[in-house]
Amino acid sequence: MVWTKQRLNNLFFFLGCAACVIMLFTFDVSFVELWEHICHAGYWLIPILGIWIVVYGLNAFAWKAIIEGNIGGPAPISFWRIFRLTVTGYALNYATPVGGLGGEPYRIMELSKDIDKQHATSSVILYAMMHFFAHFWFWFISIFIYLALVLVGDMPMTTAIGTVLGVIILFCLLAFYIFSRGYRHGLVVYVLGLIGKIPFLKGWSRRFRGNHAEALRNIDAQISALYSQDTKAFYTSLVLEYSSRMVQSLEVMFMLLLFGIDNGGGLDGMVLTYLHSVLIVAFTTLFANLIGFLPMQIGVQEGGFVLSIAALGLSAALGIFVSIICRVREIIWIAIGMALMKMKE
């Protein structure tokens, strides 16, 4: 069977719809309890859902900067289309294990309608790299936010906590080194070489590299060119991606405020509540990405929220509430992503 772009589009659409159904039936609470949590959130659901328009908007601007830096000029694609592909790509990533097996191929397929396939592939790979690169910066900087809160007496510091923070710092520094090599020398050929060491994929990797050697070299050259020749596009994308994590933290802050947790109120209390929210998101996303081999990270994200919120001395019930509302938000945005997939230009 020849897989046309329309058939692949329909396949991706089916995966996204199936994800919504699976997620609805994999909650650890009954539908009655789920409805009670949603009612408890009340009108706060509006800013919780709405904040992701800003998050995805920042992601789309970051990707646009990479596309323009990669092709060396204005992107021949509207921002609205980039925003659509951003939302739909992330919706598909929720539906597949090892996030990216659904969203990135879909983005390449769609972007290749606007630019040549090699630039579309390298632009998507560059954005995926930047997305993870910004994650590591978010985790790295969050450690120093924690240490600053320790200095003002807001957070505890024990030998165990210090050890964990030290390990995370080393983990991030190692990641920065790996990413720097990838940005300087390209990543595709190297990754395919690693895949070729897996017993059952060795033959496929060798054939793929042999059949597409020139295209793969060109893609790697485009990846390294962005870092070495267009630093403005590179750092613009990095700042936008990092900023999206900081905006995402407002989602948790809204839920803390819903439970009356505002650290005494006032400007100081709100700033402290926001910093706590940043730490909760940082720990949860770190935990979820370390164990990111489950579709929609079922159970992983929930556990991360409960652990991170409990570590701040808050109740486990609050952690469960936050995880459930975040899961509801994911389902709604997956549905929006699937609707955008079928929307005509």
H/E series: HHHHHHHHHHHHHH
Structural class: mainly alpha
Shape: globular
> Sheet with the most strands?
none
Based on DSSP secondary structure assignment, what is the total number of beta strands?
0
Q: Which stretches of 5+ consecutive residues score pLDDT under 50?
A: none
| Radius of gyration, whole Å | 21 Å
SS field, number of helical segments: 14
Q: Report the sheet-strand fraction.
A: under 5%
Distance between the termini: 28 Å
Q: Considering DSSP H and I runs of 4 or more, what fraction of the residues is helical? A: over 70%
Question: Taking all residues together, what is the mean pLDDT?
Answer: 81
Please describe what this structure looks like.
The protein is mainly α and 345 residues long. It is 79% helix and 0% strand. The protein is built from 14 helices and no strands. It has helices at residues 5-24, 31-41, 45-71, 79-95, 103-111, 117-151, 159-185, 188-195, 202-211, 213-229, 231-258, 266-290, 300-311, 316-341. Helix 3 crosses helix 4 (79-95) and helix 7 (159-185) packs across helix 10 (213-229). It is globular and about 60 Å long. The chain starts with a helix and ends with a helix. The mean pLDDT is 81.
How would you sum up this structure in a few lines?
79% of the residues lie in helices and 0% in strands. By secondary structure, it is mostly helical. The mean pLDDT is 81.
Give the secondary structure arrangement, pairings included.
Layout: H1 5-24, H2 31-41, H3 45-71, H4 79-95, H5 103-111, H6 117-151, H7 159-185, H8 188-195, H9 202-211, H10 213-229, H11 231-258, H12 266-290, H13 300-311, H14 316-341
